[in-house]
Amino acid sequence: MIQVQGAATFVDTISMEEIGRFILWTDEGLRQVGKSLPEGSEDVIKPIPVMQNIQSI
């Protein structure tokens, strides 16, 4: 499992749009990491559709 954690200590507020953009950016980075893994690794990597849940808020 890959877990990404961050802190926005430099702002007073953060919007859902900013959080969504950060998640999309992180997702693309993890997708690129996945492409560099050995062939067959995709069978053990299961994405979690986080953005679907955020967009419905």
Give me the secondary-structure category: mainly alpha
Radius of gyration: 14 Å
Q: Characterize the biggest β-sheet.
A: none
Mean pLDDT: 75
Spatial separation of the terminal alpha carbons:
25 Å
Rough outline: elongated
Beta-strand content: under 5%
Compute the number of strand runs: 0
Tell me the helix content. 40-55%
Total DSSP helices:
2
**Unreliable residue runs:** none
| Element order: H for helix, E for strand | HH
Précis, in short:
With 57 residues, this protein is mostly helical. It is built from 2 helices and no strands. Helices cover 46% and strands 0% of the residues.
Notes on the protein architecture:
With 57 residues, this protein is mainly α. It has two helices and no strands. It has helices spanning 16-35, 50-55. The longest helix is centred in the middle third of the chain and has 20 residues, at 16-35. The protein is elongated, with a radius of gyration of 14 Å. The model has no long low-confidence stretch (mean pLDDT 75).
